[in-house]
Each structure stands twice: as structure tokens, then as C-alpha cells.
Write a structure and sequence with these properties.
30% of the residues lie in helices and 10% in strands. By secondary structure, it is an alpha+beta fold. The protein has a domain at 56-162: 2-Layer Sandwich (Alpha-Beta Plaits). The longest helix is centred in the N-terminal third of the chain and has 30 residues, at 3-32.
């Protein structure tokens, strides 16, 4: 390559450098006049959209003062990460008695399968998203902690109980010619 070719390459590189700097400044100036989107987080909280799925919770029924968990183990079976543990025993009246409810929130995918499968709608997805902790042991929530997160059972839940929903199934029609 001749010295003239090198000189042209240097000039091209210089022009491209100036163009890149100008383009970067244009982007900066445009964003200078846009509305700010930064939240002062601890003081100002996000406005969560409806249907936001935070961690699962066990809201307390205001009539009984307890959650609606019957210990059917459906949530334990459907959980893909197997983070739910519900120890139960049979009571004197041959009904299941829930001894505890433990959930390792550190493993939770927030998939809502446990809330969807629950026959009594005992599990609701909360709007809580702050899950920071200093140890893994603090990420295992017991029944009391899940009740605190869930609060009081809402007057009008956003979904109907499973038993009522099953009553509205469309009947299966028989095939012609059978």
C-alpha cells in the first residue's frame, strides 16, 4: 500500500471518528429532553399491573381466622421445582389435619401452577416482589409467614372456586353413527 493510500485511510478513520462522536452526542441530547423514568425506589414503589404474579401466599379467611388449606397435596405434586412441603396427619374425624406449610421461595419460579390447581383457592399470588435475604434459611417461609404475606382473603376473589367452575363444563356430545 502506498503512502497516499495510508493517508486516505487515516483521513477516513478520522472522519468516521468525528461522525461517531457527533452521533453519540445527538443521542444524548435527544434523551436529555425525554421524561425521566427513574424511580427513587425505596420511597417510591412501582405501580404493578393487574395480574402481576409475585410469590405465592396463603390469605386468611376472615370468617374462620385461618387459611383455606385442606392438605390435599395438589400443590406439592404439581410444583415443578418441588419447593412446597405440607405435612399432614389424619384427625380423629378421618379428615386431614395440616401440621404445617413450608415453601422455599428461593426456588420458586412464580409460575402460578400451585394457585391454579388448589381446589379451595387457598393459594393466591401476591404482589410482593422483594425477596432479598442474607441466608438461604430465611427463604424458607412457614405457614405463619405466608399468612402474613397473603393478608386477609379478598371479598371477591379474582377467580371462582374449582367446584363451581366444574359445574359449567360443556357436555360431551355423542358421535353420529354409534
Amino acid at each position: 500500500m502506498s503512502s497516499l493510500g495510508k493517508a486516505i485511510a487515516y483521513v477516513r478513520e478520522g472522519i468516521y471518528t468525528l461522525y461517531s462522536i457527533a452521533k453519540g452526542h445527538v443521542v444524548t441530547i435527544i434523551n436529555l429532553f425525554r421524561p425521566k423514568v427513574t424511580l427513587m425506589y425505596p420511597e417510591v414503589r412501582w405501580e404493578l399491573p393487574s395480574g402481576y404474579r409475585g410469590i405465592p401466599s396463603l390469605p386468611v379467611d376472615p370468617n374462620t381466622g385461618q387459611d383455606k388449606c385442606i392438605g390435599c397435596q395438589a400443590c406439592v405434586r404439581i410444583c415443578p421445582t418441588q419447593l412446597i412441603e405440607v405435612p399432614v396427619h389424619m384427625g380423629e374425624d378421618k379428615k386431614r389435619v395440616v401440621d404445617g406449610y413450608f415453601m422455599n421461595i428461593g426456588l420458586c419460579m412464580l409460575c402460578q401452577l400451585c394457585a391454579d390447581i388448589c381446589p379451595t383457592n387457598a393459594i393466591l399470588m401476591s404482589d410482593r416482589y422483594e425477596l432479598a435475604s442474607f441466608s438461604r434459611e430465611d427463604m424458607v417461609y412457614d405457614r405463619r409467614k405466608l399468612n402474613e404475606i397473603g393478608g386477609v382473603w379478598p371479598e371477591q376473589p379474582n377467580r371462582e372456586p374449582k367446584a363451581e367452575a366444574e359445574g359449567h363444563k360443556t357436555p360431551v356430545t355423542s358421535r353420529e353413527g354409534e
